[in-house]
Design a protein that fits this description.
Bound molecules: uridine-diphosphate-2(N-acetylglucosaminyl) butyric acid
Helix content: 25-40%
Oligomer: single chain
Strand content: 15-25%
Distance between the termini: 11 Å
Number of strands: 23
Number of helices: 13
Shape: elongated
């Protein structure tokens, strides 16, 4: 159990840069299996999900290791398609190994993936897409098993909803399939484009990434290698932005892509924060003597909508704002498990499955709360920045799955925040 201690009431100042995006790095690490040459990923944060990915790569027989701030992978000939249950159960992103191990090892066995309990998270679209490309799918009681006899072949496949992970699985599979694949109804998130950028740098032929129709001309012989800098983490940048909105102060987020979290920045403007965006930086100011404006209605949806991962962070910001607000999450059924912690801090926040209703005007007081999941845990840290006295956030390791050192990062901006 980890404990993050927050002493609320301090304003923030200074500048900070987010690391490479977790949700880019995780599929990229899996995609390196498709490469017949070394790959180097720059500036990879030290997250437990990255450590789990390295362990999955090693268990598969691949060679992947940290080299300073980078990760370097080297090609190998023999790969095992058996993903150890402990590693699969440690994160949802174990699902990214389905396609590359199927391509490289000929078969893959994925025990039930873990990850945040945000509601049901089926993998049917991943499986249907791979089946359309020639995979044989077997559902065992405790695992999914995929096999192929010949090579995977191109397909014209429509995703029943724009799943980020399934689009990424199918991009990986199609890049090394025989013939052309057309993905329709694909997810358009920046991390999908980033994966396509990486695959293209390795010799894949992909057009349309970032739009709902992606066309991939397969390179059945496999991909080359490359040196690649993943996108900056938009949700970490969002977390810093939420922190200054909550605590007050004046911070600049450097080396970020403001366009990738512009819906959150627009939300902050609507609450009364002063937000100025540059090409790769954002300055956010909030005078904490002036209450933020509540009365906000947010709807989290697939890109370019309001990001679901940002929804609990927005909720934290709205707890002390003037007037009631509502947030609806169109993607996950249980996004607002952090509401119990908000209430313990003194806010009125009711979660009703997909919807969170916030009364606003709360006076928060420090107490002991429990991080229910990754973004919900971060939202409790953010809320605690405006609580009177000390808050202890108990965390079973959710937060370090997605943030390298959130307490230290916030402390570098002046927050009273540390690992206890
Ligand atoms: N879905 C299905 N069938 C599938 C796949 C998805 O029904 O085969 C449903 C899911 O149950 C969910 C919806 O589709 O209701 C969207 O899921 P999606 O597949 O898009 O999400 P994901 O790939 O599992 C990624 C991020 C999440 C982020 C979502 C939505 C990674 C590693 N994870 O998850 O990030 O919330 O997209 O943008 O890329 C996080 O970072 O904390 C996190 C949860």
């Amino acid at each position: 159990m980890e404990i993050i201690e927050v002493r609320g009431g301090r304003t923030l100042a200074g500048s900070i840069a987010p690391p490479a995006a977790k949700n880019s790095v995780l599929p990229l690490l899996a995609a390196t299996l498709l490469c017949g040459e070394p790959c180097r990923l720059h500036g990879v944060p030290r997250l437990t999900d990255v450590d789990t990915s390295l362990a999955i790569l090693t268990a598969a027989g691949a060679r992947a290791a940290r080299c300073g701030r980078d990760i370097v992978t080297r090609p190998v000939t023999l790969l095992s398609g058996d993903i150890p249950p402990r590693l699969a159960g440690a994160m949802r992103s174990s699902v990214f190994y389905l396609a590359p191990l199927l391509v490289r090892a000929g078969q893959v066995r994925l025990p039930v993936p873990g990850g945040c309990r945000l509601g049901p998270r089926p993998v049917d679209i991943h499986l249907d897409g791979l089946a359309a490309m020639g995979a044989r799918v077997e559902l065992a009681a405790d695992a999914v098993i995929l096999r192929r006899s010949g090579r995977l072949h191109g397909a014209d496949f429509t995703l029943r909803l724009p799943s980020v992970g399934a689009t990424e699985t199918l991009l990986m599979a199609a890049s090394c399939a025989e013939g052309t694949t057309v993905l329709r109804g694909a997810a358009c998130e920046p991390e999908v484009e980033d994966l396509a950028g990486f695959l293209t740098a390795c010799g894949a032929r992909i057009t349309g990434a970032g739009t709902p129709v992606i066309v991939i001309q397969g390179r059945a012989g496999g991909l080359d290698g490359c040196s690649y800098t993943p996108l900056p983490d938009r949700i970490t940048a969002t977390t810093y932005a939420a922190a200054v909105a909550m605590a007050g102060g004046d911070i600049t987020i450097r080396r970020c892509c403001p366009a990738t979290f512009s819906t959150f920045l627009d939300f902050l403007r609507a609450t009364g924060c002063d937000v100025q965006t540059g090409v790769s930086s954002v300055r956010i100011r909030r005078d904490r003597r002036v209450p933020l404006q509540g009365g906000q209605e947010l709807f989290a949806a697939a890109w370019p909508g309001f990001a679901t991962d940002a929804a609990p962070l927005a909720a934290a910001v709205l707890l002390t704002a003037q007037g009631p607000s509502r947030i609806y999450d169109g993607l996950f059924q249980n996004r607002f498990a952090c509401a119990a912690g908000f209430r313990a801090l003194g806010a009125q926040a009711q979660d009703n499955g997909r919807e969170l209703t916030i009364q606003g005007d709360a006076r928060l007081t420090g107490t002991v709360v429990t991080a229910p999941d990754l973004r919900g845990g971060a939202a409790l840290v953010i809320a605690a920045l405006a609580a009177e006295g000390k808050t202890c956030i108990l965390d079973e390791g959710h937060i370090r799955r997605g943030y390298q050192a959130l307490p230290d990062e916030l402390a570098s901006l002046g927050a009273g925040c540390r690992m206890a």
